[in-house]
Structures are given as C-alpha cells and as structure tokens.
C-alpha cells in the first residue's frame, strides 16, 4: 500500500486522473487494496483544498495504514470517513482548483451503496464525477506535494467489462430508450457520426474488421440537429477519454436532461467539441487498451452516456 513510482496495477482499470497531469517521481502516489483487505477509513486533511489523504484497511482484524499522501502543508480540518463492513464506494466526485498557478484537487466526495460522504474542501466550477457499475474500487493514485495535485482510481470489473458512467440524465429510462455499442472481437472503431447543434442529437458508430465494415443503428435523433460531423479514426488510433457537458434541452422540447456537448480524446488528438459547451462538465480518461464501447439513454436526443472499459492486457 506504499506510494510507488509506477501507478499501474495488474488486472485493474486505471481511470483518470483529474488535476495536474505531470510531475516528478517523488510526487507520484498510489494506494491499492491488497488481497483480502477491506477499506475501512479514509482520512482527509482539507480546507480551501485537499491537503492530504490517508487510507486504512483491515484484514483478519488487523488495521493497516497507508502513507500519508500530500500534506507538505497542513489544512484547517482533518475529517475521517468510516465505512461499514458491507459498504462499498460506488462513485467519486470532486473539483479542480488552482494554487499558485498549479492545478490541485480542491474538493472530494465519496458515494457508497449506503450514503454520500462530503464534500470535503472547496467547490469550483471545474468539477468531475465518476460513477461505475458491474465493478469495484480497488485503489487510488495521483500526484501530491504540498497538496493533492491529482487523483485517479483503480477499478476492477466483476466479469470482463465495467460500466463507467453515466453522465447526463440520472433517472432510469424505458427499454426503448436504452442504447449500447460494444466493439466485437478484432474490430476497430473506424468512425463516429455525430448529429449536433445546441446539444447532441444522435450518435452512430462504424467498425472495421479486415475489409468488412459494420455500422450501428442511429442512437437518438428522434429530432434532427443542425450539423452532422464525422470522426474518422486512423488504424492505430484509439479513444482514451471523453469530455462533455450535461444540461437541459432548449427550444421546442425544452427542460429535458441531455448531453449538450462531447469531445473524444485519442492517443493521437482530440476530436471536438461537438454541440454547445454548456452545463456541468464530465471529463474522464483511461489507459490505451481499455476502451470497449459506449452506452446510455436516448430519445429525441442523447440523454446520457457511459463507457465500457476492460483491463489492459
């Protein structure tokens, strides 16, 4: 459970990080649950930002504390989050701030299958959230010095694939509103077709395997947008993150929670944003080799979106 230079954990999916994107080896931190260990406590030193984090696990009645990550400076308040025996974290949220021209984590909250803890720290407009399904949290990683500069999570799928998200509409939809796209074995994502305007109206995906191409149905688009854009991916190009915003629809069908904008980041470039960047942002990234597909709800528009991820080999 010590801080290590390499933040990759075998068999796990690394999602994030949010905040500062690069630092020296001395600033890298990583906490991963060991076999048969249960996370029982998180200690957060905070004030106008997150100063430090420390994790306590339990195995066979014995408590184990990680290093304290960050905290070269101290905060105003030290809070402890205690988890019950059958309690599991199912979502991490927070905000990114700025201290002396450097990005830092200014706020954190932890949602479990029982309640929400926090927020701790101070809110900004630069927020992030990461819910997941069909998998579990197995650790955190990031950068730290005087403060917690960046944070990401380690997730492990219950089977082969974990669902990360969704962002946008939070209420469950009817079966006819559910959409899902997964890459088949040996298929490469060749193209995404986006119908957009003040929001994202529809998405369509084209894959290629050898000389064979396959195109999905159009997801969403019961109403049409102003512009249809196509992203053409190179053969060795892969999606490593998305950044979007969620808001309420406007115009003739107003007041519906929707995806108002989206961009796709690959190992080569960023495509977008498409739509209108307004509302609540949802930036999320992952390692090359993890992407499997997208899913969500759609009707007149793309109501929400999530990502299928798998562990890198």
UniProtKB/TrEMBL annotation:
Keyword Repeat: no
UniProt-listed PROSITE patterns: JACALIN_LECTIN (PS51752)
GO molecular-function term, one example from the UniProt record: carbohydrate binding
Top-level taxon of origin: Eukaryota
Presence of the UniProt keyword Transferase in the record: no
Gene3D superfamilies for the chain: Jacalin-like lectin domain
Database matches in CDD domains: Jacalin
Name of protein: Jacalin-type lectin domain-containing protein
Lineage: Eukaryota, Viridiplantae, Streptophyta, Embryophyta, Tracheophyta
Sequence ranges assigned to domain Jacalin-type lectin in this UniProt record: 12-157, 161-311
Entry's family note: Belongs to the jacalin lectin family.
Keywords: Lectin
